Amino acid sequence: MMKGKYLLITLIFLIQSCSKQNKLFVLLKSEKTGIEFNNKITETDDFNILTDEYIFNGGGVALADFNRDGLPDLFFTGNMVSNELYLNKGYLKFENVTNSAKLNSTGFWSTGAAVVDINSDGWMDIYVSGAMNTNNRKNRLYVNQGLNKENIPVFEEQAEKFGIDDNGNTMGACFIDYDKDGDLDLYVLNNEQNETIPTNYRKKIIDGSAPSNDKFYKNNGDGTFSDITLDAGILFEGFGLSVTPVDINKDQWIDLYITNDYLTNDLLYVNQKNGTFKNEIQEYLSHQSKFSMGSDASDFNNDGYTDLISLDMLGESHERRKTTISKSFFFQNVLNKKWDYQDQHMRNMLFKNNGPNLPFSEIGQFSGVYQTDWSWSPLFADFDYDGNRDLFITNGFPRDITDMDFANYRLSYGAYTPVSTLLDSIPIVKIPNYAYKNNGDLTFEDVSKKWGLGISSFSNGAVFSDLDLDGDIDYVVNNINDKAFIFENILYQQENPPNYLQIELEGDKLNPDALGAKVVLRLSDNSIQFQEQQISRGYMSSADPVMYFGLGKLKDVVSVEILWPNGLLSKINNPDINKRLTFSQSEALAVNSLIFPFAEEQKLLPYKEVSSKYNINYFHNEKNVQDFFKQRLLPHKLSQNGPCIAVGDINSDGNEDFIVGSSSSFSPRVFIQSDDSKFASRDLFQKEQEKKYEVESMTLFDADQDGDLDLYLVSGGNEYDIGSEWYQDRLLINDGLGNFKNQQNRLPKMYVNGCIVRPADFDNDGDLDLFVGGHNKPGAYPLADNNFLLRNNNGFFEDVTDITIPSLDSFGILTDALWTDINGDKRNDIILVGEYSPVTILLNKVKGFEKLESDTLEDTEGLWRAIEQVDIDLDGDLDYILGNLGKNNMLSLSPETPMYISTKDVDKNGSVDPLIFNSQQNSKGELDIYPIQFWDNLTQQSPMFRQEFNSYHSFSKANFEYYKEKGFIDNDSILIAKHSESKWIENLGEGNYKLNSLPDLLQLGPINDFLIFGSGNKRKVFVVGNDFGGAPFEGNTDALQGTILHLDENEGRKVVSAQDSGFNVFGDAREIKSVRLKNGKILILVAQNQNKLLAFEEF
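The chain above was modelled as a monomer; its predicted structure follows.
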């Protein structure tokens, strides 16, 4: 019996040990740590979430060695409870010394905390932000007076003495040396809730007069500060929730990234180096989070450039999304343009820094970190020391006032319902914080449970530090209505832990933590790790000034280099690892010049934009057609697909010219090349009647075999009704001198929403025939319009589609087509790609076209946008490269998790109701298939959906099978898409193919076109894309930069980004073509929707 008992105890011990070893963190009990702090908030009838929306915005954590014993201490801010200071006694034990330190703040609503040595006496002080109570919210400065007899630091409140007792509704603050005079100045984050200024669309306040304008205080160097807010250029209103200092442009001057709640845009105050800042956020970020909360800055991908993250409140489960969001707001884009607001979207944003003079790419969806619910503090740190910075995010909210059912209940019954009843009806958002492991490829893996952070909480501010000096990084979180979390990192209790370095900086007397310094590790594998020294990070918190670098299995660090705030440099070669190294600014040396990543690399880029050099001055204009009013459930706009480009010798002078297509109400533009290689331009059409057509595609070809190039124009778009005469294509005959005349009798009647035209001699009779592709039926997406095969009969074209390619009837929405000889029989076959259809090869047989049967291709239903042929694997045969939507979106498509769209007219009113479904998490965290669209948008499309559900919660529980059972969809009306990644089809020979993914850098957005450049075994594939016509909730997909895929027999395949090539295309790029110049050079033309035409030249 005793033997069995011992075996049971041993088994339990082994299970517990294994469980501990599988986790990276262990939550320590307060009995062990001595930390009892609980930011307890109690609502009353007079003070609650309904009277004060910011009641649950929580508090922060400040970390510093306040008693100078070499151990990091912890300061927690409280709202309805006092702040508390805990001295680190070693071995993860802490002592509450709040009262002895004279820091009791009962009755004062504290928010953020910032650590600074305000008086340069060597003792760290604490600046605490105040909020809520207008009669008692002046910010407080607790100045450290040194140790008392019990070796406890004692503080004295002196904010008024220093002139920084700001009386705003402040959420936080940060200290920076903005003017490089050596001392630290102060930025104060204001969030004044003023009901006289609404938060709906209106004229922005940008003159510093808004009640919610932030404040800036200059350090006078004499123990006082002066309010220079207006003089410093801090002029934009905002409901600020975080401020992150960062040198965004590597000019060695500190800039400020501000995240704002509500409608007000986030801000990026770029230091002008003259005592002022300028908000330049639109030059750096193309869109923003909508309800921006915490933020952080870090080089998460180790490329030497500091990236940014901002948090929002998008739920991860379908139920959370569909109960907190009513609809995709169609007027949003219109109002943003009217009032000059930058686009905002409700999700976390991860902004990848692309380098100098280039906008950031927002890749949160691609990276997998965009949906963490009601989130507060993001922090980048390499918690597992593998060399890649991971991401921890706190979240939770005690009462979710964004719940739509509660909002409706309050609106209907709130006036005569007891407050306590109203409060009890509000859902609670108590979910675990998120831990994301950095995979080193721009993506992150959710390891919250695996690493031991899967504990439900209402968490706000957080910091990380090696609290017990055992080498690894611990994690501290301030919670509402729960004790603070102290997570011990047990990495160094495991076998064969990875290597690391910790860097401690000793600045000068005025800036002891060396804020603004930069550190780089140059490693033996030629990689680098780069970090800026700032302690205002995350949310309402002041971070550890010690810097942490994981090395993984690397044992050799080539050098550690520190660029100090005063411009001096420290460097040591081959430092010892697995220890903390201390560097002092006093030992730094002057340098003549800086190298990357301290300063920008001086690169000779191979390509340069030269449109003005060649007189190519063109800007594409487009009317803002509201596609979403025709069909409320569209996944993207259908009316802005241009402009297109056609290249050829238009006037028969031996020089290549080109034409740029146009949208409705505008004329295509003709560019004629002269002998000096410059271009003269003119409108193709003069009459307004001729400009009504939307030109979707063009081709220059000799239609009538008279030796000059005629012009075929495809008419399309989505603004006209089905069967409109403005969908008729046009054939313009060239008189040989570049003058065109429309000869409509040469074409059959084709009132179809067209998208492409591709010429080829399919019948081998010596003239060029035409394949004309149709897109969606106007107003009936996703039903496809007709495609045509037009046979050339002496310059007159005959529709032979039905007798030649009968299989076209079953193809979906066409987007591109490619003529090519697949089987080497000297007859042009055709490959078709489109939305909700597989890649389809039609073999050109003598009696007509036949579909090539292929198991591989049969399973390729996607959202394809483009196709081109090139020998990607350099094996001598042609492969096929496919542009798709990419992976930077919310769809997560794969053959295992496809997307479905319905073609059914649910209410039989003559309009297709395109319900879209994909795989999403249910409330249990399991995947199920749910509608993508929101309930209000469904009811706008058809009142049947309002009648079907009685609440947002009931709507949120209805899955794919439910809609089938209720008859809203059926198997015959369903189209499917299994792929969103851009791919390439490997030609294995003998009609066999393999589907491969393109590199990740080509998955950051939709690919709209390719240009193959070069020949033989040294080729380049130029790639352009993006889509600025996204649904309002999801927004534009704009992260794809101009990219070049190099194909070299010796070097293999290599993706070259815009920052390394100069091929910078960040707009809504629709088509790319090359033009040979008289001077022997080749221009690469890129047409962008509602943007300038770009021209690139190689140098």
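Confidence is low (pLDDT under 50) at residues 1-19.
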